Structures are given as structure tokens and as C-alpha cells.
From TrEMBL:
Domain of life: Bacteria
Native species: Roseateles flavus
InterPro entries, alphabetized: Solute-binding_3/MltF_N (IPR001638)
Signal peptide: 1-20
Name under which the protein is recorded: Transporter substrate-binding domain-containing protein
Keyword Transit peptide: no
Keywords tagged on the record: Signal
Lineage: Bacteria, Pseudomonadati, Pseudomonadota, Betaproteobacteria, Burkholderiales
Ranges for domain Solute-binding protein family 3/N-terminal: 25-251
Amino acid sequence: MKPLVLTLSLSLLVATPIAAEPPPVLHFGTEPFPPYVVERQGRAVGPMVEVLRATCERLAWRCELTLLPWRRALAEAEAGRLDGLFPLLQTPERERLFHFSSPVLNARYALFSRSGQSYRYDGPASLEGRELGVYGPSGTSAALNELLQDGPGVSVHVEPDNATVLRKLVHGRYGEQGLAFINESVALWLLKQEQLQGLQMAGVVREISYGFGLVKARLSEADFQRFDEALAANCRSGRTAALVRPYALPASACVVRMPR
């Protein structure tokens, strides 16, 4: 009987399916950053959220999302309690912490002035002696610091959010010749939502793009490449364009970053 028992046991082992590994659960942090990420009834919505969900769906990964103030979100990522952040602008300082995805949405940093001002941006030297408001610490403030490095004498006011920057500019808090350094689409959205009057665009400073940052301490290079390839596949299939189109924001070209 012993051989029979052994044969049955082996048969049972062969017939029993091996349980598949559960899909990864990724924890992403973001902040309200309209029109890219909008808070609605305590939940994050908007084009970047939809693109993330579509990417995770293609991978069969479960991705959870938490709205946080940006400083806290960065701190949580640095402490290894988040797997990723968005929307994220790639900077040299952030490259030690994040894998950067292919770009998702194009954008522009611009200067806004009070209505009636004759100022038009003509390079960093044209900012000499002016007061500028900027949201920070953020990718925006980092970009402004880079612009002003070894350049003109400018007084910079770092504010807790973009709405504060625009309100203070409207009320002359940066002086009669004051300026706001801000993402163009963010500014236009806030001007409409806050019903702010009396501002005008004074020039485009820099073309940028936003994507996703995956924390290197949490995801391997191989897992990051899987994420980025899924992101690019959705872009090539037209799904990303369909998700972004209702928001009237410019989608980035479909590219995949090469492994480093």
C-alpha cells in the first residue's frame, strides 16, 4: 500500500494549482495641484490621476492614492513610506530619490504681472530689481532658483501655495512692478476659480513636463521599467490622449526612458 499512497500524494501535489503572487500594492502621494490634480470631496481626480490608474490597471497592480501637503508627501517618500509621487518635475536634486517616468503632460513656466504693466520677459537680466512671488518649496521654486543663479538681483517671496502668490500679486504685495513665477495652466485655472481680476501674462520662461516619480528605495529598476513601459503602451494606444483630452491640457509625446 505504501507505493499507492505515495503515488496519490504526488498526484494531489501536481493537480493542486500554485497560488499566484498577489499584485503589487503601490502607495502614491499627491497634492491638490489643479488642473493636473483636483481635490473633489476629499478624493483626488484629474488627468494625472486617470493616467496613473490606467497604468496600474494595465499592470494589474493595485495603486492606492493619498492627498497630502507637498512637503509632507516628499518627507513620506524620503522616509520610504510612499512608493511614488506625482505630478513631479525632474530635477537633479530629486534624481537620488526617484526613478522618473516618461513625461505625461507638457507645461510652461510663465510670469504674470498686474494689468497695465508694460513689462515683458526678455531673459533673466530683465528681472533685475523686481520682486517675484513663487510657490515653494516645489519644482517651481527650484526652477526659479536655477533661473536666477548667478544672475540678476531679485527679491523672491516663497509662498505656501499658488493661490496665495496670485492674490498677493493682485493686491500689490510684491510692489507695483511685482511678478508671479508660476505654471501657466495652474495660473489660468486659479484666476478663473478664484475670480481674480487685474493680472496679465508677461511671458513664457521655460517649457517643462510632468510625470511620475517612483521611489528608488521601494521599487527596483526592473519594476520601474515595467511601470514606464505600461505608461508608454497606454500612450501609444491612444488611451492616454483620450483620458487627457477632456482637460484641454497638452499631452507629452509617447516615449520610453532608456534603462540607466
